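hiii so um. not sure if this is the right channel but i have a protein structure encoded as tokens and i wanna go backwards to a sequence. like what aa goes where. can anyone help
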């Protein structure tokens, strides 16, 4: 199976459309989504309507998705994140809220496992260290696990005789061949709000038969999104982050 691996769309339709346009040239069988469909960006409903139509869409819930339904999570958010969640709640249809509410907090499938943050705390943990990788190892089976949340594209690999190796993807088209006997945790980066100093939308393609993961970056019309954010009166900090990619 060939899977698109998507994460952290954050209501950024222009970025999502650019990713889907590129994916159409690659041909995938299914779409794995590591969470945070909404929050921050100006187009929650359009993004929800778009992913609903994706072939074999396999989602998990992100913390921004969860905030729509859970006040305990909402109160921990920064002021600007709270503003964006209020905007999101006001601009999502009831059917799209129902759609998002049904996202599970983790996924364990034949070809991979998936969670937004970590298996210890799907909505708060930022999985970024070798120690966290080791602590999570007995929470999932198989050789591949996808995560999101940090908005930084990386691949961690582990063999039981050494500390996990962490590699941040720096290129705009990088293919990793997965080795037998190793276990991997992979973050495909963020589509709608990259934070690794690369403003292009980030996503991956996982081929479970060839055992490859390809990380791709695509440009999109950032200025068009920022215009919408200005019109929606979303906080400037969120708009500025798109320019910097941090
Ligand atoms: Fe996120």
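sure thing!! here u go:
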């Amino acid at each position: 199976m060939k899977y698109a691996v998507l994460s952290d769309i954050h209501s950024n339709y222009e970025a999502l459309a650019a990713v889907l346009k590129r994916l159409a040239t690659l041909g995938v069988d299914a779409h794995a989504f590591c969470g945070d469909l909404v929050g921050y960006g100006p187009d929650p409903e359009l993004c929800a309507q778009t992913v609903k139509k994706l072939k074999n869409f396999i989602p998990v819930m992100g913390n921004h998705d969860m905030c729509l339904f859970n006040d305990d999570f909402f109160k921990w958010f920064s002021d600007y994140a709270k503003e964006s969640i209020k905007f999101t709640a006001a601009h999502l249809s009831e059917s799209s809220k129902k759609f998002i509410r049904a996202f599970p907090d983790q996924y364990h499938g034949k070809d991979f496992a998936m969670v937004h943050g970590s298996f210890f705390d799907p909505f708060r943990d930022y999985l970024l260290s070798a120690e966290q990788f080791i602590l999570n190892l007995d929470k999932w089976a198989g050789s591949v696990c996808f995560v999101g949340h940090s908005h930084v594209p990386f691949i961690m690999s582990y063999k039981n005789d050494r500390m996990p190796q962490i590699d941040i993807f720096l290129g705009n088209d990088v293919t990793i061949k997965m080795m037998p006997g190793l276990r991997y945790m992979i973050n495909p980066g963020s589509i709608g709000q990259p934070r690794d100093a690369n403003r292009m939308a980030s996503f991956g393609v996982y081929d479970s038969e060839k055992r490859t993961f390809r990380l791709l970056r695509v440009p999109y019309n950032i200025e068009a999104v920022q215009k919408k954010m200005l019109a929606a009166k979303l906080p400037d900090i969120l708009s500025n982050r798109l320019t910097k990619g941090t």
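oh and The radius of gyration is 17 Å.
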